[in-house]
């Protein structure tokens, strides 16, 4: 059972990654994202997820440096954007992200979307950066089974993480099973389905039983299905609420009931349709 906010899972390369973190998608650079991260760290978060696309890497780095904690205490993920895929352009884009963050290394670097035909070359650049010690773990985001199968045929280093849209309306069971079979850790973005599940009767019933909010039940379901989760908020009260999930655990029946809400419904793009 995951019963601490700083509890970690061991990735397939031995790196320890916190099960729970703060996402900063659409958090504005400057005081908004910096205050959110400082609040999160005060509450106990030790994992922050950003991306080149979010245009807030500089602020993420500043907030972590000013937190009073050492760099090694905070696990930081960033991601390569689609227009930078390809071997040489990936190396350049990574250096840009690293300089914006002002870090000597990144804990986890992800290919943001698979696209059509460049992700194998991109992965070769990821492997070089990993071997050179600039990244502690390399992974992917939004990869479907067939993307992973293609990548694994060419990869010398196996991805550690696959970050995908995952919530009770999109459980992606075949993908989850494949990742588990390949020792690739699944991570959820949009775990709360952008608020669309908070009035669901099944979720509300379970929330009432535990004296928790619907959001807390869904985030607990992530952890109880062995999926890393990174809910996004810039409001301290919500950041605190999201983190108050370590004093209860769902039983097998409740996990199943929530999983049965699946309708293969996305809030974001279908990776097979987002071709570039």
Automatic annotation (TrEMBL):
<protein>
    <submittedName>
        <fullName>Aldo/keto reductase</fullName>
    </submittedName>
</protein>
<keyword id="KW-0521">NADP</keyword>
<feature type="domain" description="NADP-dependent oxidoreductase">
    <location>
        <begin position="27"/>
        <end position="262"/>
    </location>
</feature>
<dbReference type="InterPro" id="IPR023210">
    <property type="entry name" value="NADP_OxRdtase_dom"/>
</dbReference>
<dbReference type="InterPro" id="IPR036812">
    <property type="entry name" value="NAD(P)_OxRdtase_dom_sf"/>
</dbReference>
<dbReference type="InterPro" id="IPR018170">
    <property type="entry name" value="Aldo/ket_reductase_CS"/>
</dbReference>
<dbReference type="GO" id="GO:0016616">
    <property type="term" value="F:oxidoreductase activity, acting on the CH-OH group of donors, NAD or NADP as acceptor"/>
</dbReference>
<dbReference type="InterPro" id="IPR044500">
    <property type="entry name" value="AKR5G"/>
</dbReference>
<keyword id="KW-0560">Oxidoreductase</keyword>
<dbReference type="Pfam" id="PF00248">
    <property type="entry name" value="Aldo_ket_red"/>
</dbReference>
<dbReference type="InterPro" id="IPR020471">
    <property type="entry name" value="AKR"/>
</dbReference>
<comment type="similarity">
    <text>Belongs to the aldo/keto reductase family.</text>
</comment>
């Amino acid at each position: 059972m995951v019963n601490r906010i700083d509890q970690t899972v061991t990735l397939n390369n031995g790196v320890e990654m916190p099960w729970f973190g703060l996402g900063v998608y659409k958090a504005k650079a400057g005081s908004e994202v910096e205050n959110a991260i400082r609040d999160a760290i005060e509450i106990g978060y030790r994992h922050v997820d950003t991306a080149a696309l979010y245009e807030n890497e500089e602020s993420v780095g500043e907030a972590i440096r000013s937190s009073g904690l050492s760099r090694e205490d905070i696990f930081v993920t960033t991601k390569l954007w689609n227009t930078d895929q390809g071997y040489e352009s990936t190396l350049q884009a990574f250096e840009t992200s690293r300089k914006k963050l002002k870090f000597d290394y990144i804990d986890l670097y992800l290919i943001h979307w698979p696209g059509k035909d460049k992700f194998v070359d991109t992965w070769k650049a990821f492997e070089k950066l990993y071997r050179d010690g600039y990244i502690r773990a390399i992974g992917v985001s939004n990869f479907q089974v067939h993307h992973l199968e293609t990548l694994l045929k060419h990869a010398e280093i196996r991805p550690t993480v696959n970050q995908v849209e995952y919530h009770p309306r999109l459980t992606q069971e075949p993908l989850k099973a494949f990742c588990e079979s390949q020792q690739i850790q699944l991570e959820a973005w949009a775990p709360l389905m952008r608020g669309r599940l908070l009035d669901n009767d099944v979720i509300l019933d379970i929330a009432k039983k535990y004296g928790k909010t619907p959001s807390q039940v869904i985030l607990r379901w992530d952890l109880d299905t062995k999926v890393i989760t990174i809910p996004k908020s810039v409001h301290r009260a919500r950041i605190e609420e999201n983190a108050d999930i370590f004093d209860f655990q769902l039983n097998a029946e409740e996990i199943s009931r929530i999983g049965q809400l699946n309708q293969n419904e996305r809030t974001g793009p279908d990776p097979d349709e987002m071709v570039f």
